[in-house]
Amino acid sequence: MAPPLIQLKDIALTFGGTPLLAGVELAVSAGERVCLIGRNGSGKSTLLKIVAGLVEADRGSRFVQPGATIRYLPQEPDFDGFSTTLAYVEAGMNPGDDHYQAQYLLDQLGLTGTEDPANLSGGEARRAALARVLAPSPDILLLDEPTNHLDLTTIEWLEGELASRRCALVIISHDRRFLSNLSRATVWLDRGETRRIEKGFSAFEEWRDEVLAEEERDQHKLDRKIVAEEHWLRYGVSGRRKRNVKRLGNLFELRDQRRDYRGVAGKANLAAAEAESSGKLVAEAKHISKSYGERPIVDDFSIRVARGDRIGIVGPNGAGKTTLISMLTGADSPDTGTIRLGANIEMATLDQHRESLDPKTTLADALTGGRGDSIMVNGKPKHVIGYMKDFLFQQEQARTPLEVLSGGERGRLMLARALAKPSNVLVLDEPTNDLDLETLDVLEEMLGDYDGTVILVSHDRDFLDRVVTSVIAPEGNGKWVEYAGGYSDMLAQRGADLKQRALESAAADKPKETRGSAPASSAKRRLNFNEKHALETLPKTMAKLQAEIAKQQKLLDDPELYAKDRKKFDAASAAIAKAHTELDAAEEKWIELEMLREEIESGV
């Protein structure tokens, strides 16, 4: 076996009480593809920072081959001090590197290099950070959740890019398909220790279950042995004192071994509070269309959603997935066509804007709405502590402010809030974000047992294959098509992935644009100061409006508000209507300017 490029030995680290890492070992040789697996909070990101040299362990050694280059992709990149994305990417390169790679990778990832890092969305920030770590062609790439905030098109591009490189990889990700396609070895971080198997992620779950089953058998044998020794101690015939003292010492050792055993973390207990069944028809859309300015988002789309359907909506960022789901659920109206909702619809929604929650709010108050210490689940009160434990939160976290929760914990919180509301239709926008693999398993089981209808947006291909019965995908120019089956079935039916179809659509549309009446001189036009300023500030404005809508909606969700305080109800209704109007106008303006910018840059 080739000597390791990097090696950790006997790594230990403790933050307060229970050790986070205890005697961890990790070695990565040239060209190896390793996935690092573990539950939320197990220390995966911390371990990757130790590998990168960003965190110092309490104990142990770290060896790096002289001359080996390492690049680390954090979950939250730091853009401080950089005026453009190109400057940020180039700052991560070595003096002898080809700086053309920086601009090339930014282009491949849909960025120009002129963007102000302070105004980047989550997806844009992730793409800029990826360009920074890929541009130097390092010997070792350490990737912490590289697919977070990326659409399917970019995820598939990233897979191909990483597969073509010779560098060693260590990857943390919740995306099963991504890990299965890239990994060749698996390191499992569990209860502070690491285990390794020289197989990719596709073999991990079966191996993990075997390890845990063997561990359970060993603990059962240990328990039986302790019982037998205690029985001897109480009732056995005394022998030589020296032998008895030794046997008594062995019993104490067995008890210590049992006491020190750290059992496997509990399993999330996800269950949706179900309302009475809806009618057979949940929603019917006939020839609906929606445009922002001259850009068609949805064009002449029809669908009939029946009770029990599981529908997934996929597509690149900006394709209009959220707009389509808003129309199908009656939250937004189409420009043309009709939407008809069925009878007795009770809808629960999980959106992807977790920042709408007040970061100073405690975990318990976020679940109860600040009203007492109970939460209504299936029409019955349940103590908030018990409900928290169903979602793998500890009792002592009840008064924890949301701002200190990890991404996975915020994801579980949003699920807990959404699933507590009685429903027969679940609308889930990116439900898998930041969830660990075990919680994803339980979420899939819950959706499989749910008697109602599920409509979800997701970029997780494996999750889609396991959960949905049909997939709605964009075909370009506002055209959407429903395919039977999961994501893999959709690819088989359409014969192209999302990126290929988008390129084909763009190529087909190009001659039409060329024949248009726009003067050739438009390619020489530049954005003026006001247009540039609007492009930079509108995303923040839209985010504030979305937060305002969420705030007012929270007030209106109180069924007793109208009776208790009519003025407050009217004020909230007026405020949310005004925010929706301003948000629609801001989105339309931003799309117009974005299209104009793209036309200018492409020379159309």
UniProtKB/TrEMBL annotation:
<protein>
    <recommendedName>
        <fullName>ATP-binding protein Uup</fullName>
        <ecNumber>3.6.1.-</ecNumber>
    </recommendedName>
</protein>
<dbReference type="GO" id="GO:0005737">
    <property type="term" value="C:cytoplasm"/>
</dbReference>
<dbReference type="InterPro" id="IPR017871">
    <property type="entry name" value="ABC_transporter-like_CS"/>
</dbReference>
<dbReference type="Pfam" id="PF00005">
    <property type="entry name" value="ABC_tran"/>
</dbReference>
<keyword id="KW-0677">Repeat</keyword>
<dbReference type="GO" id="GO:0005524">
    <property type="term" value="F:ATP binding"/>
</dbReference>
<dbReference type="GO" id="GO:0016887">
    <property type="term" value="F:ATP hydrolysis activity"/>
</dbReference>
<dbReference type="InterPro" id="IPR003593">
    <property type="entry name" value="AAA+_ATPase"/>
</dbReference>
<keyword id="KW-0547">Nucleotide-binding</keyword>
<dbReference type="InterPro" id="IPR051309">
    <property type="entry name" value="ABCF_ATPase"/>
</dbReference>
<keyword id="KW-0238">DNA-binding</keyword>
<keyword id="KW-0067">ATP-binding</keyword>
<dbReference type="GO" id="GO:0003677">
    <property type="term" value="F:DNA binding"/>
</dbReference>
<feature type="binding site">
    <location>
        <begin position="315"/>
        <end position="322"/>
    </location>
    <ligand>
        <name>ATP 2</name>
    </ligand>
</feature>
<dbReference type="Pfam" id="PF16326">
    <property type="entry name" value="ABC_tran_CTD"/>
</dbReference>
<feature type="domain" description="ABC transporter">
    <location>
        <begin position="283"/>
        <end position="503"/>
    </location>
</feature>
<comment type="function">
    <text>Probably plays a role in ribosome assembly or function. May be involved in resolution of branched DNA intermediates that result from template switching in postreplication gaps. Binds DNA and has ATPase activity.</text>
</comment>
<dbReference type="GO" id="GO:0006281">
    <property type="term" value="P:DNA repair"/>
</dbReference>
<feature type="domain" description="ABC transporter">
    <location>
        <begin position="6"/>
        <end position="216"/>
    </location>
</feature>
<comment type="function">
    <text>Involved in beta-(1--&gt;2)glucan export. Transmembrane domains (TMD) form a pore in the inner membrane and the ATP-binding domain (NBD) is responsible for energy generation.</text>
</comment>
<dbReference type="InterPro" id="IPR027417">
    <property type="entry name" value="P-loop_NTPase"/>
</dbReference>
<dbReference type="InterPro" id="IPR043686">
    <property type="entry name" value="Uup"/>
</dbReference>
<dbReference type="InterPro" id="IPR032524">
    <property type="entry name" value="ABC_tran_C"/>
</dbReference>
<feature type="compositionally biased region" description="Basic and acidic residues">
    <location>
        <begin position="503"/>
        <end position="515"/>
    </location>
</feature>
<dbReference type="GO" id="GO:0043022">
    <property type="term" value="F:ribosome binding"/>
</dbReference>
<feature type="region of interest" description="Disordered">
    <location>
        <begin position="503"/>
        <end position="524"/>
    </location>
</feature>
<keyword id="KW-0234">DNA repair</keyword>
<keyword id="KW-0378">Hydrolase</keyword>
<keyword id="KW-0227">DNA damage</keyword>
<dbReference type="InterPro" id="IPR003439">
    <property type="entry name" value="ABC_transporter-like_ATP-bd"/>
</dbReference>
<comment type="similarity">
    <text>Belongs to the ABC transporter superfamily. ABCF family. Uup subfamily.</text>
</comment>
<dbReference type="InterPro" id="IPR037118">
    <property type="entry name" value="Val-tRNA_synth_C_sf"/>
</dbReference>
<keyword id="KW-0963">Cytoplasm</keyword>
<feature type="binding site">
    <location>
        <begin position="38"/>
        <end position="45"/>
    </location>
    <ligand>
        <name>ATP 1</name>
    </ligand>
</feature>
